[in-house]
UniProtKB/TrEMBL annotation:
The keyword Transport does not apply. InterPro entries: G_AIG1 (IPR006703), GIMA/IAN/Toc (IPR045058), P-loop_NTPase (IPR027417). PROSITE patterns: G_AIG1 (PS51720). Belongs to the TRAFAC class TrmE-Era-EngA-EngB-Septin-like GTPase superfamily. AIG1/Toc34/Toc159-like paraseptin GTPase family. IAN subfamily. This is AIG1-type G domain-containing protein. It comes from Anisodus acutangulus. One of its GO terms (molecular function) is GTP binding. The lineage of its organism: Eukaryota, Viridiplantae, Streptophyta, Embryophyta, Tracheophyta.
């Protein structure tokens, strides 16, 4: 295994572990030639020459469109297409010129708290099922076109809690809307400096600043190539960091074991006829696994929503206290102003009296004179 191909300015090699290595100056490469249709292959490619990427993020952030940019074709339906929003996890693949297969799993907004828990549980299991041997990188898709909300922050938090701390080593942040930043003469750094809230900055830092800007609207083949190279380079960094081992967890393993057992169970069933019945059907076990996922997910989201409600209540209380303090200050100021007015008034009266006294005095002095 392993090999290399050299384009004008960029050397592409795959090492023994099948890791894609991009060398040379990006941007001038013709590695990903968008002039022709990329090779579309089957939906279940999991050799070591394959990379499985999962797109996650709030609905409308540009997951499906980014998936299409990576695949180089309209594989997933985007929000405003006639087919509507992505409603279920879906895997699509493409093979790059150097032979590397990229599997992209598009997801509905799994972590945006808008879906039903049962449906989300099912989708998480489906996503794991599609990923088969694991996830090489989780692409968290955010948009520079919409403000990063508290809800989105909670979604990222719930995602990390659900998959455990280890998932951070697999996370890559993709910001869509590069065209709009360009229109405003802004760079991603400018955007992050001005508009990125602290918690998001911290999360990105914890993920070794693996972030990339995507312009999914561009027609420029060079720009398309550059951003694809950039995201794949980040995936490469993730692979290096994790020794080429894709992300899996207990649920992944359970799902694999369940499928393996179901195959053994089926053959046993066939051989022994009904002598030794399979203890539980695959469907039953799968639905039990899905229930576990759903309840784990519900546990995490309800804890987060509770924490969120407490934070909000604290914030409202602090605001009210601030208001009350302000009112006190304003009340005090009002009182001071009144006292000042009174003092002024009294001062004027005294001055009047003084003037009058002076006048009287002058008059009496004249008399004396
Ligand atoms: N201007 C601009 N619009 C984008 C970009 N990426 C995605 N969109 C638009 O954002 C909307 C939502 O995208 P979609 O991929 O359906 O989001 P999803 O719900 O996360 O899958 C669509 O109208 C896309 O055309 C981008 O880079 N620039
Ligand atoms: Mg979508």
């Amino acid at each position: 295994m392993g090999g290399s191909s050299v384009t004008d300015d960029l050397e592409v090699t795959t090492n023994e572990a099948g890791t894609l290595v991009l060398l040379g100056s990006p941007g001038t490469s013709r590695l990903f030639d968008f002039s022709g249709e990329p090779e579309v292959i089957g939906k279940e490619v999991t050799t070591n020459e394959a990379r499985t990427l999962v797109l996650l993020g709030r609905t409308g952030n540009g997951k499906s469109t980014t998936g299409n940019s990576i695949l180089g074709r309209k594989a997933f339906t985007s929000k405003y297409s006639s087919a509507g929003v992505t409603s279920t996890c879906e895997l699509q693949s493409t093979r790059l010129d150097d032979g590397l297969t990229v599997n992209v799993i598009d997801t509905p907004g799994l972590f945006d708290f808008s879906g039903e828990h049962e449906v989300i549980g099912k989708e998480i299991v489906k996503c794991m099922d599609l990923a088969k041997d694991g996830i090489h990188a989780a692409l968290l898709v955010l948009s520079v076109r919409t403000r990063f909300s508290r809800e989105e922050q909670a979604a990222i938090q719930s995602f990390q809690e659900f998959f455990g701390e280890k998932i951070r080593d697999y996370m890559v942040f993709v910001f869509t809307g590069g065209d709009e930043l360009e229109d405003n003469d802004q760079s991603l750094d400018d955007y992050l400096g001005n508009e990125c809230p602290e918690p998001l900055k911290e999360t990105i830092k914890m993920c070794d600043n693996r972030l990339v800007l995507f312009d999914n609207k561009t027609k420029d083949p060079k720009k398309k190539t550059d951003q694809l190279i950039e995201v794949l380079s980040l995936v490469n960094l993730v692979l290096e960091k994790n020794g080429g081992v894709p992300y899996t967890n207990e649920l992944f393993k359970e799902l694999q074991a369940l499928k393996a057992n179901s195959l053994i169970g089926d053959s046993k069933h066939m051989i022994d006829e009904l002598k030794e019945p399979v203890p539980r059907s695959y469907e039953e076990q799968l639905s039990r696994l899905t229930e576990n996922v759903t309840s784990k997910f519900m546990g995490i989201t309800s804890k987060l929503l509770e924490q969120w409600a407490i934070e909000r209540a604290d914030r409202v209380a602090a605001e009210l206290k601030g208001k009350a303090d302000q009112e006190k200050i304003e009340g005090g100021l009002h009182e001071l102003r009144e006292q000042l007015e009174r003092a002024k008034h009294e001062n004027e009266i005294s001055r009047g009296q003084l003037e009058r006294a002076k006048h009287e005095n002058a008059k009496s002095s004249c008399h004396i004179l």
